[in-house]
Write a structure and sequence with these properties.
Chain A has 489 residues and is of the alpha/beta class. Chain A is 55% helix and 10% strand. Chain B has 13 helices and 13 strands. The chains are: A alpha/beta (489), B alpha/beta (423).
Amino acid sequence: MRDSTRLSGSEWTLDDLLVIEQLCARHAERYGLDTFPNQMEIITSEQMLDSYVSSGLPVNYAHWSFGKHFLIESGKYQSGANALAYEIVLNTNPCIAFLMEGNSLAMQSLVIPHACFGHNSFSKGNYLFQQWTQPDAVLDYMLFARNYIADCEERHGAERVEQTLDALHALRDQGLDKYKRPRKLDTRKERAEQARRLSLAQETMRQAEYYSLVPHAAKSAAAETVFPASPEENLLYFIEKNAPKLEPWQRELARIVRKIAQYFYPQRQTQVMNEGWATFWHHRLINDMYDAGQIDQGILLECLHSHTNVIRQPDYARLNPYALGFAAWNEIKRVCEQPTAEDREYLPDIAGKDWLETFHDVMHNYRDESFLLQFLTPKLVRDFRLMNIQTSEGQDHWSVTDTAGEEGFKSIRSQLAASYRLESYMADISVVRYGRDSDRKLVLQHQSYNGRTLLEEDTALTLKHLRTLWGFDVSLESLDQSGRTLKRY
Amino acid sequence: MTSVIVDRRPDKGKSTANRQRVLKRLAGALKAQVDQLIARRKINDHDKAAEVTIERKDVREPSFNLDPASGSAGRVVPGNQHYRVGDKIPRDQGGGQGRGSGAGEGEADEEDVFRFALSREEYLSLLFDELELPPLVKKDLLEIDENRFRRGGVVRYGNPGTVCVARTFKASIGRRVAAEAQFEEALQAAETALEAARLSAVPDRVQAAQLELQEVRQRGQDIPFLDPVDLRHRSLVEVQSPRTAAVMFCLMDVSSSMDETRKDLAKRFFTLLYLFLSRKYAKVELVFIRHTDQAQEVDEDTFFNGTQAGSTKVLTALAKMYEIIGLRYPPSHYNIFGAQASDGDSFGADSTESSAYLLSQLLPSARYFVYAEVGDASSQGSTSLWAAYRAIVSDHFNMATVRGRDEVYPALAKLFQKEQLVT
């Protein structure tokens, strides 16, 4: 252990990493960063690619699409087109952070505060993560899922399992409970319920057979009520519960795919906040370590160099979530500590407040959309020289509608916040009718946002997958806000 | 719970199952590429990893995606230094400008294809996918025995060069522990006897007991550190194992009548044969002999790409092969395979002489000799060489015709059918 001496050079040992983690922990404590215990895992580049394809989950079931992504990512990496991430971290308890073996000591001093304290505290504290994910249970659940799917492959043939998973993966984005909170993951309960659902299904079959033998009055057509009573946004859930032809194990697969997609739901909605938060804290903790004489100048400079690369924002390009997030958090701190008249006008709630308290409050209670809507400052808009551009179908150009400045600020802010809404980049599709007592047709509607329709080719292929799952006809149309049909597929 | 650090680097191969699955899914596309590669690659390259290209649409994973061209869209773009409110920016001008904020905007900037390398095993199994030879063929070819020495554990006797020091010391320790325990017992008995003698106060008895004790002490000192019985030797045992040395003679006719198409057929034929052998044997040496009216041993590149023209004399190639066997590949140590490809043109007495030479000189020492006649439909089966070789009746010889690329494998399969192989 090099505890007493100052860390320097570029080589490191496992003990050095523990030292960095402990140093960071001591500094982080002063800021009240509440974290899960850290489990740092040293991995090779190949293992990093493994982690990529399963979105950081250390355990995953086998499917060709993961193999495909591995081939694509490793091709990009080997040809030099893409560098690999220095770390990858997932909200689990303990918090597992994968650190690349090739990182220098300075890089490790950067990624440990970033992942093990920044992301870790964010996923422990943020309300979306608290409500939508169960960091204690996810690894158990993935293990359960992997074993269950391997078991299915043995029982029902790898090919059928693959076909079912292909179809389910196509609907992954429509497998989310966006508003109601999902049930907690619990592997034991999951197994018990699996057995219960199976026996229930058998019982229903028996009853159906029995009733088909008993003569009964013809149902009146009027008795058919609309089902579901209100539109169901979670397509995979609806399929799992209602698809007429699926076998029990296929329903279980639907459930697994849905649960995993749900697990990543909070991450998609907090990218700017989460990366900004982690970047803010690695920057802070590294400087603290340097000030305390725990790392030498060489490490500090290398860290700052990497930090600068991470928050680089090229002009006229896609907004870099690290840059935007880092700047936004710094702005909050500035507004708390040294508010200008402008800040008092636009952000009266936080101007002049204690910055650390504000930070924790914001980290706990916001997501990207609400975060930007509430805390984007006019100064940040000016610093980033943001402009708002608009276009619509049929136009061959973008029109500049707002530029950074007093008049443009509010509309840039709302446009920016809106672009992080789920509907702006994910198709909002719900089940509106299921002809349970008639032709068993499934009617879907796409609620269009800004008049966007769906890509035809992809949609046709996805519908084909959906029809194989459903077993009967499926229709889909896009509706605009006023309920007018834009397109049928 | 406190923080921990885990070194995961030793856990390898997590992606193997997924890789197998994607390769299986891509089998059709990969097979097509491998089939093209077979003509492009050098013979020995078939033993290496192979780069393949896959189109993304072959492994497409659809989902409900928004059409970026539809509806209205608003973007927030950073770094503006040129534009004022009301300015217009062409929509297709650079992906950068349009791509403002927002999370996933699709993967439009991705390439349409991706490349990766198939490992040697993956490549060969794709190549041999349809080339599954009868299992007994493999067995027949494998069961050629040769005596070899293999480590056979530890024994008590052997020459000094094979002493196994560690095991010898282990034996020495055991022996000493046993001997010293015995010595302790004897020592105690002698001391007790001396004590008893002293108590009885009989001088003779005391003296005898003292002598006894002295003797026992001496024995204790005599326990040797290392005794010949401790010696252990590594042993070698003789085992029978398949002989692994094999040599393949590739005899190709490059006379003027062999055009590029025929050479290509010959090349594919040799490639498959070589792979077949190399999968069964640790090492297959290759000898390339080309001939017109005279034979030359050449390297692979020259064999396939060199140009030489002239008339045909098959016998020269066979004689060259015989000569090389005599110089470098004694039949007692090598499995000798011969493969000859020709368009079957030969003149005068050459055909019959060659046939006779093959039967009398080469076949007795060769494990197997095959003749593939390449060319188009018109000439085949009616050439003079074909007619002459037909007369050969031997278990070690076989022949087939190859009229097109699709006939290369069937020809090979025919030539290596189980019942036609020697045992």
